[in-house]
């Protein structure tokens, strides 16, 4: 479970909310309202006053690498630090099996693992980045426009993979310009900006 208490982001009032295991919170608001900054603060990538807990453990109680194993930020424009995707995944048999299953579920040919990242399309890199974020099973996913470069078919595959993570009791915070995606995935919605509020998804649209 993710619990945020009095987290101060920019000019926003302090934010307090809970995302239970297996649920997704969508964060909405106009451009510049602080959606990405909120995700980055929860991930401890940017400094912010307040407290963030995962399963009762506060981020200040552990090292940054340990926190980021529990709380995984997936950027809208993911960075890569290796020449090919393969070097970005754990090098063991169990992980490779998970990578192969994940790539099949995302309609990604295995040969892409050994292709130069410069030769991959933006959509291929985005799907691989989602898979990279999931491979070691973080407790919390922070998703910043995770399908922005994808068409409807591939977006649906990513959503299905994310839905499986929720069924497995992962918690998620989602920023998306796709209202349909929010309706399909979110259990609650947090509105940033002048009319900041937290509300359930429209009736009849729960996943």
Supply database-style keywords.
Rossmann fold; 10 strands; 207 residues; single chain; alpha/beta; globular; disordered C terminus
Contiguous uncertain segments of 5+ residues: 202-207
Q: Could you give the order of the helices and strands?
A: EEEHEEHEHHEHEHEE
Query: What percentage of amino acids are in beta strands?
Result: 15-25%
Mean pLDDT across the residues is 92
- The computed structural class is alpha/beta
Largest sheet: 6 strands, mixed
CATH topology-level name of one domain? Rossmann fold
How many helices does DSSP assign? 6
Please provide a written account of the structure.
There is one protein chain. The chain has 207 residues and is an alpha/beta fold. It has a domain at 2-75 and 137-199: Rossmann fold. 31% of the residues lie in helices and 21% in strands. The protein has helices spanning 35-42, 64-70, 93-105, 122-134, 152-167, 179-185, and strands at residues 2-7, 15-19, 24-28, 51-54, 57-58, 71-74, 140-144, 171-175, 188-191, 197-199. Strands 6-7-8-3-9-10 form a six-stranded mixed beta sheet, sandwiched between helices. Strands 2-1-4-5 form a four-stranded antiparallel beta sheet, covered by helices on one side. The protein is globular, with a radius of gyration of 17 Å. The model is unreliable at 202-207 (pLDDT under 50).
């Amino acid at each position: 479970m993710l619990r945020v208490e009095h987290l101060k982001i920019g000019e926003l009032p302090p934010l307090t909310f809970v995302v239970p295991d297996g649920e997704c919170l969508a964060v909405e608001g106009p451009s510049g309202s602080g959606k990405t900054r909120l995700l980055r603060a929860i991930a401890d990538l940017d400094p912010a006053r307040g407290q963030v807990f995962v399963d009762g453990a506060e981020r200040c109680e552990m090292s940054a690498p340990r926190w980021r194993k529990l709380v995984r930020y997936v950027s809208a424009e993911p960075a890569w630090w290796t020449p090919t995707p393969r070097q970005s995944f754990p090098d063991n048999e169990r992980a490779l099996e998970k990578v192969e299953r994940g790539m099949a579920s995302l309609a990604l040919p295995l040969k892409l693992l050994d292709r130069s990242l410069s030769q991959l399309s933006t959509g291929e890199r985005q799907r691989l980045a989602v898979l990279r974020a999931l491979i070691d099973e973080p407790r919390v996913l922070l998703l910043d426009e995770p399908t922005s470069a994808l068409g409807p078919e591939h977006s649906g595959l990513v959503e299905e993979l994310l839905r499986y993570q929720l069924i497995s009791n992962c918690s998620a915070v989602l920023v998306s310009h796709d209202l349909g995606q929010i309706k399909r995935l979110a259990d609650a919605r947090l509105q940033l900006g002048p009319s900041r509020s937290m509300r359930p998804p429209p009736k009849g649209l729960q996943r």
